[in-house]
Amino acid sequence: MSPPAQQLADLQAQVEDAERADVQLYAAAQRNGWSLEELRKLGITDPAKRTRVRKRTAARNADQEPQETSL
Hints:
- The protein is 49% helix and 0% strand.
- It is an all-alpha fold.
- It has one domain (4-63).
């Protein structure tokens, strides 16, 4: 993998690790008696309800023609 691609992969892995830790800490806060309302007042939202960004699809080659579909 080229250095920028490797850096991107490393950063994506760090984001995934941080998201997993966030879910675990949010659940621990609830187990320790924090209510959803208290967490919301602190600006802490349910990590499971965050919107996910779709991964980009590969761009088509300029010489590749789009396929037509019949309806």
